[in-house]
Amino acid sequence: MHVVTSYADKAHRLQVVDLWATVFGYETAHNAPLVAIDRKLEADDDLFFVALADGEVVGTILAGYDGHRGWLYSVAVAASHRHRGIGAALVGHAEQALTARGCMKINLQIADGNEGVVGFYESLGYAVEPRTSMGKRVPGNIPAA
Hints:
The protein is an alpha+beta fold. It has helices spanning 9-23, 33-43, 86-100, 118-123, and strands at 3-6, 48-53, 56-65, 70-77, 106-108. It has one domain (3-125): Gcn5-related N-acetyltransferase (GNAT) (Aminopeptidase).
């Protein structure tokens, strides 16, 4: 049994860091879990959710909304808890929060090498769109590693 709830920094921080390190294996400073958590908390948008099983963090999702589109980020489920509906519950919870804000379209990106999750997202109604994703890092805002 699991429950999806809002992230609470004191209760969840270290568990989220451990989960992300295990699931994502971040290697770049701009994706460092502590940096990502702090920046999300600065946004103060209440769009950071965790899945708990027996009081332990077993999944996460970050959502973002700019008034035009919603985005899903950092969808992670501990390997020991996969295939139990936790990922779908996290996505559904974030979708509800975005919809309540008036969001009309939700986007997500899948990193190279993680294409195995395409079927999961398709089962939730997402579709691959013909787009070229581009990004630009802002070095002055990235903490030293």
